[in-house]
Amino acid sequence: MAVKITHLTNGQQVRFANADGARRYAEIIGGGVDKWRFTVVGAHEFPELSGRVVNVPVWRMTSR
Q: What superkingdom does the record give (predicted)?
């Protein structure tokens, strides 16, 4: 079951595949569970991926 959490102060939204991941994020990174609103989302909340291919440039991190 997918879960979306929304920060009560700044409105930031983060989606997770399950409630455990959302709860862990809120506790460790998000300042505590009490600062977030948890919402169960269905499949309609996630956009469908199109068949198009998008090429993303990748730069090398090593110098030559």
A: Bacteria
Amino acid occupying residue 22: A
Find where tokens 């700044």 sit.
Answer: 10
| Pairwise CA distance, residues 32 & 20, whole Å | 14
SS3 per residue for 22-61: HHHHHHHCCCCHHHEEEEEECHHHCCCCCCCCCCCCCCCC
CA atoms within 13 Å, Cβ hemisphere of 33: 8
* 26 CB neighbour count, 10 Å cutoff: 21
CB atoms within 10 A of CB 16: 19
Q: Where are the domains of the chain?
A: 2-41
